[in-house]
Amino acid sequence: MALALDHPEAVSGLVLLSGYYRPTLRADVPSFSLPAIPVIGDLIRYTVGPLFGAALLPLAAKGMFSPLTVPERFANGFPHGLPLRPSQIRAEAQDTASMVPAVAAMRRRYRELRMPVVIMAGTKDRIVDHRKHTVRLHQEIAQSALRLVPGVGHMLHYAVPEQVVDAIDASFRNPTTLRSAAGKVEPRSASLETVAPGP
Among residues 84, 119, 140, 186, which one has the fewest Cβ atoms lying within 10 Å of its Cβ? Predict the structure, then answer.
């Protein structure tokens, strides 16, 4: 979103998945931002941070994929040591700390977007509420198309990868058609498209 807003000439289309687009109160921000604080954060990242991270990783994965199960290819193929490195813990904490102010700064500019935008989300996302974020963003961007996938959680790209690829392909292959199809419908909510979940 930031790239498209600041350098629109570099972006021909956007496909947004399970995004966080509006500043909201989040209980996870204060605690998960601590490792970004100088000195205190350094101490956490090199002592208890990796231990807590290792303990929470299975629960975090379960929550991201819920209500679906964690796919075997993710459980077996994910590099579990990667997010436990002190440098990665700091990067994740900085990302968490900047998340709310970043969308607060961008939200008033969403209407500036002129390229085709496809906004996708699962209706059972427990990480980001699709009604507060995905649906409301769609209402703000005139040329957007909204695709909601019933019964799917935050990890949309694992649940329905073919539909994500199709949305990306459509935005690059025929952006004019996508723009007109998304922008011609009134009222705004009528351009919502519910797509079937994957196998």
Answer: 186
